[in-house]
Amino acid sequence: MCWIESHTWTHRSGPKEGRDVTVYCNTSEAELFLNGDSLGRKTKQPNVVPAGGLVWKVPFVEGDNQLHVNGLNDDHIVASDTLAVNYLIGNNGDFDHIRLTISTVDKDKYMIHAEARDASGNRVLDYAERAYFFNIGDNGQLVENHGTPTQSSTIEMANGYAAIEFELGDYPSTIEFRTQNIKGVYVEVPGKQE
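^ that's the sequence the OP posted. Answer follows.
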């Protein structure tokens, strides 16, 4: 088993020199790659915290990055993990707006994504307001009140992000996003008959 910390932390910011990335493996060695280039192989040290010393200073580039780790025993790859990370050199600006987008989960379900953005379009990573999603009209249905991060109509934004699933109706729907300070951001969701 190998796991790059953390799969919920897909947007990060920091200095141009990069930041530490921790990898948890139950293998004797691990090799971390950034955008296809090796950052070196490390031997796990059981008494070193964190992660047995499997920590790399990663020189992320601005924008999209791909991390990949191979876990090795006796020079054989026995486990691996991959993580896409969007990196901002420096810090994001102050909150400016919410960006709503949709993506397909399956043929009858979409995911509604809400991102807090600064004036330059960067995700505001420390934005953590309580978010509310509403289906305007009676076509389709938000998948809510299941107690999980994507299945509740009231969601605490984390890392400037929140999401909720929506089961499609026959016709298009409008989803509204609100916080205590934002009174209405909208996105259109297609219906099954489109």
